[in-house]
Amino acid sequence: MGLLQGRAVVITGAGRGLGEAYAMHSAQAGASVVVNDIDVELAEQVAERIRTFGGTAVASGHNVADPEQAAQLTEVCVTEFGRIDGLVNNAGLNYETAPWDDDVARIRATVEVNLLGTIYCGTAAMRAMREQGTGGSIVNISSGAFFGQRKLATYSATKGAVASLTLSWALDLETSGIRVNAVCPVAHTRMVWASERSLRSIPAELSPSRVAPLVLFLLSDSAEGITGQIVRMKGRQLHLVGQPYFKQPVLERENWDPHSVERAFYGVFQAHLEPFGLEKRVPPRLQELMEPSLPA
């Protein structure tokens, strides 16, 4: 019996790349799958391949950025398979640009698909899962880019929001038996091929299929009790992403003014400034402290 035998799942952006891998592996594990992609022909091709090897799948061309269409995805799953047990919020857009050259239309589209699409699909699915009363699993696809990455500001912002959303949903749904986790996958996909990053940071051997077992685990009952986690997978590497926290020292003062804030930064905080971005860029002030002083 497969890991997802008897379960029904919706996977968005499943016409190619990571989403296709999640759909194929879920079906092979016994799940009935709604294969969603705004390119419905690609979705149908994946669904047909699943049916060819004896799996169960239907294709959907619903647009996750439209709240009504996103809700219909859950309706399709319940109508076709009688239930919904899992959702993988994989649909996403990405592009590279310097932030001062960013285009309003592309910004809006990226936010609508990556963030609003995740919200629309997730809230519809959790309503149905709560009504069923049998629990379920939502897997949101985030990215390590939310740490900060050059020329990916809008994308990074949406993926940071997805990570935060995951933590809030996990809190809201823990009494409903619905687990919510996020995956930060690193894989060689069409989204990366179109990017210059593919030439310097994404090894060609990183197949989307390498990430699928993590998503299958999080969808399954084997992950019972695992919720509110952000997990990164890159080839051989599997690790948790640390949660944000309030850093020590915490300074207290009855009233803060610009001068006392300045003294706090240059008298105390300068030794505790955080490197930023995936490349761990060091702030200039911290760099000064790290440089050895020259002998007189």
TrEMBL record:
Transmembrane segments: none annotated. It comes from the Bacteria. GO terms for molecular function: oxidoreductase activity. It holds the Pfam family adh_short. The keyword NADP does not apply. Keywords: Oxidoreductase. InterPro entries: NAD(P)-bd_dom_sf, Peroxisomal_Beta-Oxidation, Sc_DH/Rdtase_CS, SDR_fam. The keyword Oxidoreductase applies. Belongs to the short-chain dehydrogenases/reductases (SDR) family. This is NAD(P)-dependent dehydrogenase, short-chain alcohol dehydrogenase family. It comes from Goodfellowiella coeruleoviolacea.
